[in-house]
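WARN no homologs supplied; continuing
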Amino acid sequence: MKKVVVIALVVVSLVLAGLGIAHYLGYFNQDEMEAIEPRTHPDLQNTNEDSPSDIVVEQPISAPLPEYYFVARSFENVLTQPDFASTPDGVAYYGEKLKVLEREGEWIRIAPIYQLEEGADEISQWVNTQHLVTKEVNLSGERWLNVLTDYIEGSDDFMLYQEKFFDASTKLVKQKRCRLSDFEELSGWVKSINHRDSVYFTYCGGIESENKVYLNVATGELF
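OK structure emitted
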């Protein structure tokens, strides 16, 4: 009888011990998991505002196309169509400013559209922009003198008065009284037979008497 009681006590003790351990471990693990559970910072949470589909990528702004160009070579051919094979219609000279009225590829239209006769093809004046520049060309320095020399080196007594001829010609071009094509007509300045020995003339804007411009090389005066 005593042996049975002892065995019963041992069994009861083991059962109670097991329940205690299970109870302790269960609550301990629960508390520990709650204590170490990672917390997400509100600023790092993924929201609809931060979703990739809502991100706007700014596109680069294209630079505006120039409204004006300047001739940077001795001259540029002007054509009736935006095509090198079209009919020539004049020349744009070094330093001249060209206003863009229309674009077609590398070509710019610099004059109104017109027809030579009713029913004919529309034409205008077109210049290729390949050798044009967008900054104003200075009518000074070695480059300008080299260009100007091509137009006035045929002047009478050029070697004696070339500096006077350079200064006077540059002044007339800057004042837009003359174009380089005007000097091309006479290859520069011609000695006057109706004035003193120091007077030379050229034509600007035509070849009539009213288009004559005189230069006194002794004083530099234009009249």
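The first helix runs from residue 2 to 36.
OK
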